[in-house]
Amino acid sequence: MDQKRVLLIIGGGIAAYKAPELVRQLKAQGLATRCLLTAAAEQFVSPLSLASVSGDKVYENLFDLTDEAEMGHIQLSRDADMILVAPATADLIAKMAQGLANDLASTALLATDKPVMIAPAMNVRMWEHAATQRNLAQLAEDGIGIIGPDEGDMACGEFGLGRMSEPAEIAQAAKAMLAQTPARDTPLTAAKPLAGRKILVTAGPTYEPIDPVRYIANRSSGKQGYALAEALAALGANVHLVSGPTALNDPKNVTTKRVETARQMLDACTACLPVDAAIMAAAVADWRPAEAQEAKIKKTKSGLDDLKLVENPDILATLSGHASQRPQLVVGFAAETNDIENYAREKLARKKCDWIVANDVSQNSGIAGGVMGGDDNQVHILSTTQTLQWETMSKTAVAAKLAAHIADYFAATKEHE
Known about the structure:
By secondary structure, the chain is an alpha/beta fold. The chain folds into two domains: 5-184, Rossmann fold (3-Layer(aba) Sandwich); 198-415, CoaB-like (Rossmann fold, 3-Layer(aba) Sandwich). Helices cover 33% and strands 22% of the residues. It has 14 helices and 21 strands. It has helices spanning 19-28, 47-54, 65-70, 73-78, 90-98, 104-111, 124-128, 130-141, 167-179, 223-234, 262-272, 315-320, 340-351, 395-415; strands spanning 5-10, 32-37, 82-88, 116-120, 145-146, 150-153, 159-163, 198-203, 208-209, 215-216, 238-243, 255-258, 277-280, 287-289, 309-311, 329-336, 355-360, 376-377, 379-382, 387-389, 393-394. Strands 12-11-8-13-16-17-19-20 form an eight-stranded mixed sheet, sandwiched between helices. β6 (150-153) and β7 (159-163) form a beta hairpin. It starts with a strand and ends with a helix. Mean pLDDT is 87; it is low at 183-191.
Protein backbone atom coordinates (compact mmCIF):
# COMPACT_ATOMS: atom_id res chain seq x y z
CA MET A 1 0.00 0.00 0.00
CA ASP A 2 3.10 2.26 -0.08
CA GLN A 3 2.42 3.20 3.59
CA LYS A 4 -0.90 4.87 3.03
CA ARG A 5 -2.29 6.78 5.96
CA VAL A 6 -5.55 6.48 7.88
CA LEU A 7 -7.07 9.08 10.18
CA LEU A 8 -8.94 6.97 12.76
CA ILE A 9 -11.78 8.86 14.44
CA ILE A 10 -12.87 7.08 17.61
CA GLY A 11 -16.44 7.72 18.70
CA GLY A 12 -17.75 7.61 22.24
CA GLY A 13 -19.19 4.11 22.43
CA ILE A 14 -18.08 1.20 24.57
CA ALA A 15 -16.54 -0.38 21.46
CA ALA A 16 -13.89 2.36 21.66
CA TYR A 17 -11.93 0.01 23.94
CA LYS A 18 -11.13 -1.98 20.78
CA ALA A 19 -9.36 1.01 19.21
CA PRO A 20 -5.79 -0.02 20.18
CA GLU A 21 -6.34 -3.44 18.60
CA LEU A 22 -7.80 -1.78 15.51
CA VAL A 23 -4.67 0.38 15.22
CA ARG A 24 -2.53 -2.78 15.44
CA GLN A 25 -4.60 -4.46 12.72
CA LEU A 26 -4.32 -1.41 10.48
CA LYS A 27 -0.55 -1.45 10.95
CA ALA A 28 -0.54 -5.17 10.08
CA GLN A 29 -2.19 -4.20 6.78
CA GLY A 30 0.66 -1.73 6.16
CA LEU A 31 -1.39 1.37 7.02
CA ALA A 32 0.03 4.21 9.11
CA THR A 33 -2.61 5.42 11.57
CA ARG A 34 -3.19 8.73 13.32
CA CYS A 35 -5.93 8.82 15.98
CA LEU A 36 -8.53 11.45 16.74
CA LEU A 37 -10.52 10.99 19.96
CA THR A 38 -13.93 12.48 20.67
CA ALA A 39 -14.50 13.75 24.19
CA ALA A 40 -16.81 10.81 24.99
CA ALA A 41 -14.32 8.28 23.62
CA GLU A 42 -11.79 9.36 26.25
CA GLN A 43 -14.02 7.69 28.84
CA PHE A 44 -13.24 4.30 27.27
CA VAL A 45 -9.69 4.54 25.93
CA SER A 46 -6.75 6.75 26.89
CA PRO A 47 -4.81 8.99 24.50
CA LEU A 48 -1.58 7.56 25.90
CA SER A 49 -2.42 3.98 24.93
CA LEU A 50 -3.38 5.08 21.41
CA ALA A 51 -0.22 7.15 21.02
CA SER A 52 1.83 4.13 22.10
CA VAL A 53 0.37 1.73 19.55
CA SER A 54 0.13 4.25 16.69
CA GLY A 55 3.51 5.92 17.22
CA ASP A 56 1.88 9.28 16.55
CA LYS A 57 0.28 12.12 18.45
CA VAL A 58 -3.41 11.73 19.35
CA TYR A 59 -5.68 14.68 18.50
CA GLU A 60 -8.60 15.67 20.70
CA ASN A 61 -9.37 19.39 20.87
CA LEU A 62 -10.64 21.61 18.06
CA PHE A 63 -9.52 24.71 19.91
CA ASP A 64 -5.95 23.69 20.69
CA LEU A 65 -4.19 26.71 19.20
CA THR A 66 -0.82 24.94 18.96
CA ASP A 67 -2.34 22.20 16.84
CA GLU A 68 -4.15 24.77 14.70
CA ALA A 69 -0.85 26.53 14.05
CA GLU A 70 1.03 23.32 13.30
CA MET A 71 -1.59 21.31 11.45
CA GLY A 72 -5.07 22.79 11.34
CA HIS A 73 -8.21 20.70 11.35
CA ILE A 74 -8.45 20.94 7.56
CA GLN A 75 -4.90 19.75 7.03
CA LEU A 76 -5.45 17.01 9.62
CA SER A 77 -8.32 15.60 7.56
CA ARG A 78 -6.49 15.88 4.26
CA ASP A 79 -3.09 14.63 5.29
CA ALA A 80 -4.53 11.10 5.42
CA ASP A 81 -5.50 8.94 2.46
CA MET A 82 -8.82 8.03 4.09
CA ILE A 83 -10.83 8.62 7.26
CA LEU A 84 -12.10 5.67 9.26
CA VAL A 85 -14.71 6.22 11.98
CA ALA A 86 -14.77 3.33 14.46
CA PRO A 87 -16.85 3.06 16.47
CA ALA A 88 -19.31 5.29 14.62
CA THR A 89 -21.96 6.12 17.21
CA ALA A 90 -25.53 7.12 16.37
CA ASP A 91 -24.59 10.69 17.32
CA LEU A 92 -21.58 10.81 14.98
CA ILE A 93 -23.58 9.27 12.15
CA ALA A 94 -26.29 11.89 12.63
CA LYS A 95 -23.71 14.69 12.57
CA MET A 96 -22.18 13.34 9.38
CA ALA A 97 -25.57 13.00 7.67
CA GLN A 98 -26.56 16.55 8.60
CA GLY A 99 -23.16 18.14 7.93
CA LEU A 100 -22.69 19.41 11.50
CA ALA A 101 -19.27 20.55 12.68
CA ASN A 102 -19.12 21.40 16.38
CA ASP A 103 -16.06 19.43 17.51
CA LEU A 104 -12.77 18.25 16.06
CA ALA A 105 -14.15 14.94 14.76
CA SER A 106 -17.17 16.36 12.93
CA THR A 107 -15.14 19.31 11.64
CA ALA A 108 -12.46 17.02 10.21
CA LEU A 109 -15.14 14.89 8.55
CA LEU A 110 -16.84 17.89 6.98
CA ALA A 111 -13.51 19.30 5.78
CA THR A 112 -12.21 16.13 4.14
CA ASP A 113 -11.96 15.48 0.41
CA LYS A 114 -10.83 11.86 0.93
CA PRO A 115 -12.77 8.56 1.14
CA VAL A 116 -14.57 7.87 4.42
CA MET A 117 -15.63 4.57 5.96
CA ILE A 118 -17.66 4.06 9.13
CA ALA A 119 -18.02 1.04 11.44
CA PRO A 120 -21.31 1.62 13.30
CA ALA A 121 -21.72 0.47 16.90
CA MET A 122 -24.72 1.12 19.13
CA ASN A 123 -27.63 -0.45 20.99
CA VAL A 124 -29.90 -2.54 18.76
CA ARG A 125 -32.89 -0.22 19.34
CA MET A 126 -30.80 2.80 18.34
CA TRP A 127 -29.63 0.95 15.23
CA GLU A 128 -33.19 0.04 14.24
CA HIS A 129 -34.56 3.54 14.85
CA ALA A 130 -35.94 5.20 11.73
CA ALA A 131 -33.72 8.25 12.25
CA THR A 132 -30.54 6.14 12.27
CA GLN A 133 -31.59 4.21 9.18
CA ARG A 134 -32.48 7.47 7.43
CA ASN A 135 -29.05 8.91 8.30
CA LEU A 136 -27.29 5.75 7.06
CA ALA A 137 -29.16 5.95 3.77
CA GLN A 138 -27.96 9.53 3.38
CA LEU A 139 -24.35 8.54 4.07
CA ALA A 140 -24.57 5.69 1.55
CA GLU A 141 -25.86 8.17 -1.03
CA ASP A 142 -22.95 10.47 -0.18
CA GLY A 143 -20.52 7.66 -1.00
CA ILE A 144 -19.53 6.80 2.58
CA GLY A 145 -18.39 3.20 3.04
CA ILE A 146 -20.23 1.23 5.75
CA ILE A 147 -18.98 -1.96 7.40
CA GLY A 148 -21.19 -3.82 9.86
CA PRO A 149 -22.56 -3.76 12.42
CA ASP A 150 -22.63 -7.40 13.52
CA GLU A 151 -25.21 -9.30 15.55
CA GLY A 152 -24.44 -10.51 19.06
CA ASP A 153 -24.42 -9.81 22.79
CA MET A 154 -24.02 -6.18 23.79
CA ALA A 155 -22.54 -4.47 26.82
CA CYS A 156 -26.02 -3.23 27.77
CA GLY A 157 -27.16 -6.84 28.18
CA GLU A 158 -29.29 -6.98 25.04
CA PHE A 159 -28.75 -9.14 21.96
CA GLY A 160 -29.12 -8.02 18.37
CA LEU A 161 -27.64 -6.00 15.56
CA GLY A 162 -25.29 -3.25 16.71
CA ARG A 163 -21.92 -4.76 17.65
CA MET A 164 -18.98 -3.12 15.91
CA SER A 165 -17.31 -5.37 13.34
CA GLU A 166 -14.11 -7.01 14.52
CA PRO A 167 -10.90 -4.93 14.16
CA ALA A 168 -9.31 -7.36 11.68
CA GLU A 169 -12.37 -7.19 9.41
CA ILE A 170 -12.46 -3.38 9.58
CA ALA A 171 -8.74 -3.14 8.77
CA GLN A 172 -9.18 -5.40 5.74
CA ALA A 173 -12.12 -3.30 4.54
CA ALA A 174 -10.05 -0.12 4.94
CA LYS A 175 -7.26 -1.61 2.87
CA ALA A 176 -9.77 -2.66 0.19
CA MET A 177 -11.20 0.86 0.03
CA LEU A 178 -7.73 2.35 -0.31
CA ALA A 179 -6.92 -0.10 -3.10
CA GLN A 180 -9.76 1.49 -5.10
CA THR A 181 -8.73 5.05 -4.25
CA PRO A 182 -6.86 7.36 -6.66
CA ALA A 183 -3.50 8.84 -5.73
CA ARG A 184 -3.20 11.12 -2.70
CA ASP A 185 -4.59 14.65 -3.13
CA THR A 186 -7.22 13.46 -5.63
CA PRO A 187 -10.60 14.87 -4.52
CA LEU A 188 -13.25 12.47 -3.26
CA THR A 189 -15.50 13.42 -6.17
CA ALA A 190 -13.04 11.66 -8.48
CA ALA A 191 -12.91 8.53 -6.30
CA LYS A 192 -15.88 6.81 -7.92
CA PRO A 193 -14.83 3.23 -8.74
CA LEU A 194 -17.95 2.57 -10.85
CA ALA A 195 -17.79 5.79 -12.86
CA GLY A 196 -18.46 5.06 -16.52
CA ARG A 197 -20.28 1.80 -15.74
CA LYS A 198 -23.93 1.38 -16.75
CA ILE A 199 -25.74 -0.94 -14.36
CA LEU A 200 -29.27 -2.34 -14.54
CA VAL A 201 -31.09 -3.15 -11.29
CA THR A 202 -34.52 -4.72 -10.90
CA ALA A 203 -36.54 -4.50 -7.69
CA GLY A 204 -39.91 -5.21 -6.13
CA PRO A 205 -42.61 -7.72 -7.03
CA THR A 206 -44.58 -8.10 -10.23
CA TYR A 207 -48.37 -8.03 -10.39
CA GLU A 208 -49.97 -10.57 -12.72
CA PRO A 209 -53.64 -9.65 -13.33
CA ILE A 210 -56.45 -12.16 -12.86
CA ASP A 211 -59.12 -9.58 -13.61
CA PRO A 212 -59.31 -5.75 -13.28
CA VAL A 213 -59.39 -6.10 -9.46
CA ARG A 214 -57.31 -9.13 -8.52
CA TYR A 215 -53.75 -10.17 -9.25
CA ILE A 216 -51.03 -12.69 -8.34
CA ALA A 217 -48.11 -11.15 -6.45
CA ASN A 218 -45.67 -11.74 -3.59
CA ARG A 219 -44.49 -9.98 -0.43
CA SER A 220 -41.44 -8.20 -1.86
CA SER A 221 -41.18 -4.55 -0.74
CA GLY A 222 -38.39 -3.56 -3.14
CA LYS A 223 -36.30 -2.13 -0.27
CA GLN A 224 -33.17 -4.18 -1.01
CA GLY A 225 -33.17 -3.42 -4.73
CA TYR A 226 -33.80 0.29 -4.18
CA ALA A 227 -31.01 0.49 -1.58
CA LEU A 228 -28.67 -1.28 -3.97
CA ALA A 229 -29.53 1.11 -6.81
CA GLU A 230 -28.66 4.08 -4.57
CA ALA A 231 -25.44 2.46 -3.32
CA LEU A 232 -24.24 1.75 -6.88
CA ALA A 233 -25.07 5.32 -7.92
CA ALA A 234 -23.07 6.60 -4.94
CA LEU A 235 -20.03 4.78 -6.37
CA GLY A 236 -20.44 6.61 -9.66
CA ALA A 237 -22.44 4.10 -11.70
CA ASN A 238 -25.08 5.14 -14.24
CA VAL A 239 -27.91 3.14 -12.67
CA HIS A 240 -31.17 2.18 -14.38
CA LEU A 241 -33.76 0.74 -12.02
CA VAL A 242 -36.68 -1.28 -13.38
CA SER A 243 -39.16 -1.55 -10.53
CA GLY A 244 -42.32 -3.49 -9.98
CA PRO A 245 -45.11 -1.90 -7.90
CA THR A 246 -43.77 -0.58 -4.55
CA ALA A 247 -44.62 2.12 -2.03
CA LEU A 248 -41.06 3.52 -2.21
CA ASN A 249 -39.93 6.85 -3.64
CA ASP A 250 -37.66 6.75 -6.68
CA PRO A 251 -34.01 6.50 -5.56
CA LYS A 252 -31.92 9.65 -5.96
CA ASN A 253 -29.50 9.89 -8.90
CA VAL A 254 -31.07 6.80 -10.49
CA THR A 255 -33.11 6.49 -13.71
CA THR A 256 -36.28 4.63 -12.67
CA LYS A 257 -38.75 2.81 -14.90
CA ARG A 258 -41.90 1.46 -13.20
CA VAL A 259 -43.69 -1.60 -14.55
CA GLU A 260 -46.30 -4.06 -13.28
CA THR A 261 -45.97 -7.43 -14.97
CA ALA A 262 -43.07 -9.78 -15.61
CA ARG A 263 -43.43 -9.31 -19.37
CA GLN A 264 -43.25 -5.54 -18.97
CA MET A 265 -40.18 -5.93 -16.76
CA LEU A 266 -38.45 -8.10 -19.38
CA ASP A 267 -39.20 -5.55 -22.10
CA ALA A 268 -37.82 -2.71 -19.96
CA CYS A 269 -34.67 -4.69 -19.14
CA THR A 270 -33.89 -5.63 -22.74
CA ALA A 271 -34.55 -2.03 -23.82
CA CYS A 272 -31.87 -0.93 -21.35
CA LEU A 273 -29.15 -3.10 -22.92
CA PRO A 274 -26.23 -2.91 -23.31
CA VAL A 275 -25.14 -2.63 -19.66
CA ASP A 276 -21.96 -3.56 -17.81
CA ALA A 277 -23.86 -5.36 -15.04
CA ALA A 278 -27.40 -6.59 -14.42
CA ILE A 279 -28.45 -7.01 -10.78
CA MET A 280 -31.74 -8.89 -10.72
CA ALA A 281 -33.11 -8.21 -7.24
CA ALA A 282 -36.81 -8.24 -8.24
CA ALA A 283 -39.06 -11.04 -7.02
CA VAL A 284 -40.66 -11.84 -10.36
CA ALA A 285 -43.81 -13.96 -10.28
CA ASP A 286 -43.08 -17.40 -11.73
CA TRP A 287 -46.59 -17.78 -13.16
CA ARG A 288 -49.42 -15.65 -14.52
CA PRO A 289 -53.01 -16.41 -15.45
CA ALA A 290 -53.21 -17.75 -18.98
CA GLU A 291 -55.91 -15.23 -19.71
CA ALA A 292 -56.77 -12.15 -17.64
CA GLN A 293 -60.50 -11.50 -17.52
CA GLU A 294 -61.72 -8.14 -18.81
CA ALA A 295 -64.48 -7.94 -16.20
CA LYS A 296 -64.37 -8.69 -12.49
CA ILE A 297 -64.97 -12.37 -11.75
CA LYS A 298 -68.09 -12.63 -9.62
CA LYS A 299 -68.27 -14.81 -6.54
CA THR A 300 -70.76 -17.67 -6.97
CA LYS A 301 -71.97 -20.55 -4.83
CA SER A 302 -70.26 -23.00 -7.17
CA GLY A 303 -66.91 -21.40 -6.42
CA LEU A 304 -64.14 -20.28 -8.76
CA ASP A 305 -63.53 -22.15 -11.97
CA ASP A 306 -60.04 -23.57 -12.42
CA LEU A 307 -57.51 -20.78 -12.79
CA LYS A 308 -55.12 -21.86 -15.54
CA LEU A 309 -51.58 -20.58 -15.05
CA VAL A 310 -48.68 -20.32 -17.51
CA GLU A 311 -45.01 -19.62 -16.89
CA ASN A 312 -43.71 -16.08 -17.01
CA PRO A 313 -40.58 -15.26 -19.01
CA ASP A 314 -37.34 -15.94 -17.12
CA ILE A 315 -35.69 -12.50 -17.07
CA LEU A 316 -32.50 -13.64 -15.32
CA ALA A 317 -31.89 -16.54 -17.71
CA THR A 318 -32.72 -14.35 -20.70
CA LEU A 319 -30.07 -11.77 -19.80
CA SER A 320 -27.51 -14.44 -18.81
CA GLY A 321 -27.95 -16.17 -22.14
CA HIS A 322 -28.27 -13.11 -24.35
CA ALA A 323 -26.53 -13.88 -27.61
CA SER A 324 -25.08 -10.45 -28.38
CA GLN A 325 -25.51 -8.16 -25.35
CA ARG A 326 -24.91 -10.30 -22.26
CA PRO A 327 -23.77 -8.04 -19.41
CA GLN A 328 -20.25 -8.62 -18.16
CA LEU A 329 -21.63 -9.35 -14.69
CA VAL A 330 -25.07 -10.90 -14.13
CA VAL A 331 -26.24 -11.25 -10.53
CA GLY A 332 -29.38 -13.16 -9.58
CA PHE A 333 -31.26 -13.23 -6.28
CA ALA A 334 -32.71 -16.33 -4.65
CA ALA A 335 -35.37 -16.02 -1.94
CA GLU A 336 -35.46 -19.42 -0.22
CA THR A 337 -37.15 -20.88 2.85
CA ASN A 338 -34.86 -23.88 3.43
CA ASP A 339 -31.60 -25.47 2.25
CA ILE A 340 -30.50 -21.99 1.17
CA GLU A 341 -27.03 -22.66 -0.25
CA ASN A 342 -27.90 -25.85 -2.13
CA TYR A 343 -30.90 -24.29 -3.86
CA ALA A 344 -28.87 -21.17 -4.65
CA ARG A 345 -26.01 -23.23 -6.08
CA GLU A 346 -28.47 -25.11 -8.29
CA LYS A 347 -30.01 -21.82 -9.46
CA LEU A 348 -26.56 -20.40 -10.24
CA ALA A 349 -25.88 -23.31 -12.61
CA ARG A 350 -29.35 -23.41 -14.14
CA LYS A 351 -29.59 -19.67 -14.85
CA LYS A 352 -25.94 -19.43 -16.00
CA CYS A 353 -25.42 -16.17 -14.12
CA ASP A 354 -22.18 -15.09 -12.44
CA TRP A 355 -23.34 -14.64 -8.83
CA ILE A 356 -26.39 -15.55 -6.79
CA VAL A 357 -27.38 -13.50 -3.73
CA ALA A 358 -29.42 -15.88 -1.58
CA ASN A 359 -31.37 -15.20 1.58
CA ASP A 360 -33.73 -16.95 3.99
CA VAL A 361 -37.23 -15.49 3.68
CA SER A 362 -38.89 -18.03 5.97
CA GLN A 363 -40.63 -17.16 9.22
CA ASN A 364 -37.68 -18.85 10.98
CA SER A 365 -35.04 -16.53 9.52
CA GLY A 366 -34.53 -14.85 12.91
CA ILE A 367 -34.95 -11.38 11.38
CA ALA A 368 -37.52 -9.18 13.09
CA GLY A 369 -40.43 -8.53 10.74
CA GLY A 370 -39.07 -11.01 8.21
CA VAL A 371 -36.81 -10.32 5.23
CA MET A 372 -39.63 -9.58 2.79
CA GLY A 373 -40.96 -6.19 3.85
CA GLY A 374 -38.48 -5.78 6.70
CA ASP A 375 -35.44 -3.52 7.01
CA ASP A 376 -32.76 -6.15 7.66
CA ASN A 377 -31.28 -8.97 5.62
CA GLN A 378 -28.72 -11.75 5.81
CA VAL A 379 -27.29 -12.91 2.52
CA HIS A 380 -25.05 -15.56 1.00
CA ILE A 381 -23.06 -14.58 -2.12
CA LEU A 382 -22.31 -17.55 -4.34
CA SER A 383 -20.19 -17.81 -7.46
CA THR A 384 -18.54 -20.73 -9.18
CA THR A 385 -15.38 -20.12 -7.15
CA GLN A 386 -16.51 -19.01 -3.69
CA THR A 387 -19.31 -18.71 -1.15
CA LEU A 388 -19.57 -15.73 1.19
CA GLN A 389 -21.95 -15.54 4.14
CA TRP A 390 -22.55 -12.09 5.62
CA GLU A 391 -23.89 -11.37 9.06
CA THR A 392 -27.37 -9.94 9.52
CA MET A 393 -27.35 -6.21 8.80
CA SER A 394 -29.66 -3.51 7.49
CA LYS A 395 -30.61 -3.64 3.84
CA THR A 396 -28.82 -0.30 3.44
CA ALA A 397 -25.61 -1.85 4.79
CA VAL A 398 -26.05 -4.97 2.62
CA ALA A 399 -26.46 -2.69 -0.40
CA ALA A 400 -23.33 -0.69 0.41
CA LYS A 401 -21.29 -3.86 0.95
CA LEU A 402 -22.60 -5.53 -2.21
CA ALA A 403 -21.96 -2.38 -4.26
CA ALA A 404 -18.36 -2.38 -3.00
CA HIS A 405 -18.10 -6.09 -3.91
CA ILE A 406 -19.26 -5.24 -7.44
CA ALA A 407 -16.74 -2.40 -7.64
CA ASP A 408 -14.00 -4.84 -6.55
CA TYR A 409 -15.05 -7.20 -9.35
CA PHE A 410 -14.69 -4.54 -12.01
CA ALA A 411 -11.41 -3.28 -10.53
CA ALA A 412 -9.95 -6.80 -10.67
CA THR A 413 -11.28 -7.27 -14.21
CA LYS A 414 -9.65 -4.03 -15.34
CA GLU A 415 -6.30 -5.09 -13.88
CA HIS A 416 -6.35 -8.22 -16.10
CA GLU A 417 -7.37 -6.44 -19.29
